[in-house]
Design goal:
Chains A, B, C, D: Pfam families: Epimerase_2. Chains A, B, C, D: GO terms for molecular function: hydrolase activity, hydrolyzing O-glycosyl compounds. Chains A, B, C, D: InterPro entries: UDP-GlcNAc_Epase, UDP_GlcNAc_Epimerase_2_dom, WecB-like. Four copies of one chain form a homotetramer. Chain A has 385 residues and is α/β, with parallel strands linked by helices. Helices cover 41% and strands 16% of the residues of chain A. In chain A, the strands form two sheets. A seven-stranded parallel sheet of chain A has the order 3-2-1-4-5-6-7, with helices on both faces. In chain A, strands 8-11-10-9-12-13-14 form a seven-stranded mixed sheet, covered by helices on one side. In chain A, helix 3 crosses helix 4 and helix 7 packs across helix 11. Chain A is globular. Chains in contact: A-B, A-C, A-D, B-C, B-D, C-D. Chains A and B meet through helix 3, helix 4 and helix 5 of A and helix 3, helix 4 and helix 5 of B.
Chain lengths: 385, 385, 385, 385
């Protein structure tokens, strides 16, 4: 019997972590052959390459696609996508996948969607249908309209994809594979490693045994020039917090410069004795760190999804996660130092939140692999209304 | 007062004809400055370059973008789009448009949509919301989700774009500007030129004063390998028709080879004494030719739109125009020689059809220019549901 | 023992014919593994794809690179080269060659040379060191300066490459592998096939048993706008010749339009009852056709090389072969109808010319393979003076 | 009278400094119109963008070309060049230059040379003909063979370009425009600014009034994996020096990672109380800093050229400047900590060296502008032998 070639394109380190259990399930599936393509910022040292983690997890990388054009402005983001199409179409021609899988909504994922759909390769989209209210939203829904199969992460998303005119038969609410990892950590989540020793990074090394805060704040593409001001609001709030702070560096993005240089400049100006900066961390370790954190601060989707499942309190800043379905664990605030400080204090006093399963129950990866092994192969579709 | 820069990207000759009155109205508008970009197959000699017509109509071309990668396969179509993004983002950086306008749904139009939306330039889409049931549909609805303004051509399309989650405030049913041209021809449409003399072409030159048939059949992207068989069904049907036949060469497309080589090979094998082949024709002349034709045969959208307004009988072949709203003038058939022949005969015996205004009343160009001059500039949106 | 991977990049049909025996010798060599890449116009149907011939000859194609950007102007030639670099560097990364081989001097060969040399892959150049006096010359000598090994075709070329500052140790006069094929035809060269039947083509089918002329004229890149005038001078001369004429279509090139459309238009205007047009012909058959021709007319390098060995009289038009070493068989003329006609008549009256071995003795392919198997691997060099 | 459009493409910050006086002379020339294109690493913040300096010097930038593909490996260098060709050919089409000027020998300059020569635009090359013995050399001589005019910086280079088969008439020894700046500093070169205050940077801020050393060491492309080891040899040598050290960050290059991460890691491991790190410095200030330095250490060409004119002692490390003509001021050493330390001490004890004018006398910029205004326009050439 012929196995199906399932080609998954990972364009950013967080995307890898998010779907790792799906990759494992595809690899382990008796009817599927995993073809793994790593591209864009997922490859780059200065954003914390995903390659080491991927290989340490036992995956073989079938193709690496370097397509990030330097410039960190909007034109470079457009051109990076153009180069991505050029490169990925060659990769698909070599690998001859039966299904291509694209993940979420970063701008470069559009390159995967266009190359596959223009080449008449059935396209599966993981985590479509969500709403956030930024440029990612244009990309996300646009990819939905190019995709043949929709592997969404919540009921909310399922309904929205169907409203977008997709056939119900090809919309599957599998939950989010990132919750599979949270599930494991939930069961056995002690902080059994020293993050400074294991992951290096720069800055102070405050004692974390008595509790700590985690910060992760990405630039918001549509508000390019404000990136620096946004990050400084958070830095100001965090500077005065009494607890140790573990800060994670942002991913590449148009706008990264404002955020990154904001952090760098702040570090030169102030002596932050309670803040340590990490470039990246293996997914499972990061979840353990979160699971034991007092609060997560920033605008990462991990606060909305994994932390809902884990019951970790979150201070969610700004518009990046707008309108994503929330559990009981989130307080939303604007880019305002006082508002951020107050919300952190409120979360500290409330303690752990109740668990929500809105983004899955811990078996998404296997569901995804099963669907990809059975779904009818097709690249032709028409809107239902 | 600052005028708005409206940058229109034309990627194919038929797209130019379709929106010519909108270009004229933008150019003439006191608050608008037209920036015209000609790209892709619209530039190429072997598909009948649009440049001559554009310049003869008095337009200045602000930038030419050569991005068609040879190969005429699906990979080349993907790569053409990638190159288009690379080139158009440079063009937009130079021209600094306030609004970019992309037309319809050919695969290369995606390059315009991505370059503009990724660069945070407000994007207007002309002729979204329609349904056809081929690869164009993925492209069309995907562009809708990247676009900020929707200038649709029918009520049917208007409803569909709104269902896709776009804000009503930014969806405008202007009708199709191609109907503006049909309107002029309807008023004064005698065939006042000799098509052989004016447009050259190859093949026989049958007398057309006693009536004639027009044929225009494009390859259908999703059915690549069948292109040749499809065109031969039509060639076989047309070969036995008693009337003069004026045949128009297809545009570039992934699949063009099957169609084009099918025609070339047929011409070498058979002596087609009643068939003349044109590469292209100025839009107004083409409409006059249609207005005086007994039947239009093929799969061009002109049969669905302009011919509805003009009341010209149409034999529409295959899936390319599937589910587009139709007037009273169309008979649909499959790629089948007998079916095509019978439908032609039926249309010949019925004569002219009743006029339908479903695609506009003749003032679309002006409506479009007015909207572009007044609509709120924005590049940020979020799905309504 | 590890075999060396020898990656040969073929970018045009004539380049393939020219080095076929080298490919055969590499493939047959016990220490070499042939990696064959077919790119640019060599792939395209409308210039006579080389793929069919290559596969019929028993070669496996390891990668196909579509990089021809349509436009047929100088900008498109530059961009085609840029795309070629993007694509070929991915191919080299996949194939991991020990040596890359680039052939001759067409503009796209620069893409091979840059990709290989920038990636620190040892680069061998076949047929450097010659002089022609057109844009090809800039390309040819520029590639010499990027190359590590020089497999030249004549003593003249050997001396020139050494003068260019290359180390003698790495300059090898192997003769031209195209002469290997001429050698076989010289031994057994009867015209044992019917060219019309075997190769199709268009136009008249004059009887060739009593002798015929072959024409092959390519556009000359530097003289873009003159291409049409040049081809018409030849067409006018040939039109009045009494013998059957077998005309071969030009390859792609910036300027192809002038030449190709010149021929097309001429065919529509005149009834050329003694002229047949071929798109292409398998190399060996073409040599047999030449070997039995009364005269070769045009500007192909085959007139300078293979015809010298075969003793076929040549009327060489214009600057394309300027300063290439000549045997006794060539008369040079300008783009002038009368000059061309007179030279043809002079060659007809003289008959077969004396054999010259200036471009090799018939064993170049094997010499090349042996050198590639033994030469020291290196990608670092410095000018000798 | 029509002025000539002279389009200069600057791809790296040091190239800008090197030819600033030529740009000034072109801008000021009554028969020339300067078109300035800034591309590649010259634009990027993280290598010290040249844009600020260029604009502060009163130049208008006509086009910015972002073409650096991230990855910092050899494949990325090749692809960066491919993208450069795509982008620059569009720029040249817009600007319609009469002459394009390319500078020196970095890998991206090849994109300028190919785009211009393939588009039949006369190409001038500044600083060809030199010998260094690394990958730059392939690029440099290859560009010579694509160029129409050669504006070389020394007698040695002049002779070499002529030996490469170029016509004497088009080879001009103008000296190096960087010496024009050294000339100004030589006349009035006090250190009239505080480098820490004016240029920021990171690290210690040792007192420099009693003398200091300058370090500038770039990665050497051909020896990619050794970059880190090379930089550590220098770091080890410098660590034990008693004088203040002003260290300049390397430019982008394939291999930058090894060098840059070597420095970063060393800084985390050691407390370098006498070393300050600069990202960049305006050319004239840098020369003043050099003019007052005790020794320059590293592999920058500034040590060979400007320092010869200024008489500043230089410890030149490794192969990067191999075979470049030297004045009396240079000691060459290998990548060896002891050798570097000893050479520094030797230079410290010898003091200032004698002036050499081998790279010009201080009026190169004006000579270059005059030549570009008068030289015959041509893009066709043939090798002289």
């Amino acid at each position: 019997m012929n196995m199906r070639n399932i080609c998954v394109v990972v364009t950013a380190r967080p995307s890898y972590s998010r779907i790792k259990t799906a990759l494992q399930a595809i690899k382990a599936h008796s009817k599927l052959n995993l073809q793994l393509v790593v591209a864009a910022s997922a490859l780059l040292e200065r954003y914390g390459t995903a390659v080491n983690y991927i290989e340490a997890d036992g995956f073989k990388i079938d193709a690496k696609v370097f397509n990030v054009l330097e410039g960190e402005n909007l034109t470079a983001a457009a051109k990076t996508t153009g180069i991505g199409i050029l490169e990925l179409s060659s990769v698909f021609e070599n690998l001859q996948p039966d299904i291509v899988v694209t993940i979420a909504d970063r701008f470069e994922t559009m390159a995967t969607a266009i190359a596959a759909s223009y080449m008449n390769i059935p396209l599966a989209h993981i985590q479509g249908g969500e709403v956030t209210g930024n440029i990612d939203e244009k990309v996300r829904h646009s990819i939905t309209k190019l995709s043949d199969y929709h592997l969404v992460a919540s009921e909310d998303a399922e309904e929205r994809v169907i409203k977008l005119g997709e056939e119900k038969e090809f919309v599957f609410n599998t939950g989010c594979p990132s919750i599979d990892l949270a599930h494991i950590v939930k069961c056995d989540g002690d902080l059994n490693f020293d993050p400074y020793q294991k992951y290096g990074g720069v800055g102070a090394q405050p004692l974390i045994s008595e509790g700590y805060i985690v910060v992760m704040q990405h630039p918001v593409t549509n508000e390019y020039t404000d990136s620096r001001q946004h990050i400084e609001a958070t830095l100001d709030a965090v500077k005065e917090i009494d607890l140790p702070v573990l800060w994670f560096w942002p991913n590449v993005d148009a706008g990264a410069d404002g955020t990154s240089s904001g952090i760098r400049s702040y570090r030169e100006r102030y002596d932050l004795k309670h803040v340590h900066f990490f470039k990246n961390m293996e997914g499972q370790d990061f979840l353990k760190l979160l699971n034991n954190a007092k609060v997560l601060v920033g605008n990462s989707s991990v606060g909305i999804r994994e932390c809902a499942y884990l019951g970790v309190p979150v201070v969610n800043i700004g518009s990046r996660q707008n309108r994503r379905q929330r559990g009981h664990n989130v307080i939303d605030v604007d880019y305002n130092t006082n508002a951020i400080k107050n919300a952190i204090e409120q979360q500290l006093s409330s303690g752990k939140a109740e668990q929500s399963c809105i983004y899955g129950e811990g078996n998404s990866g296997e569901q995804i692999a099963d669907i990809l092994s059975e779904v009818k192969l097709k690249f032709h579709k028409t809107i239902v209304y």
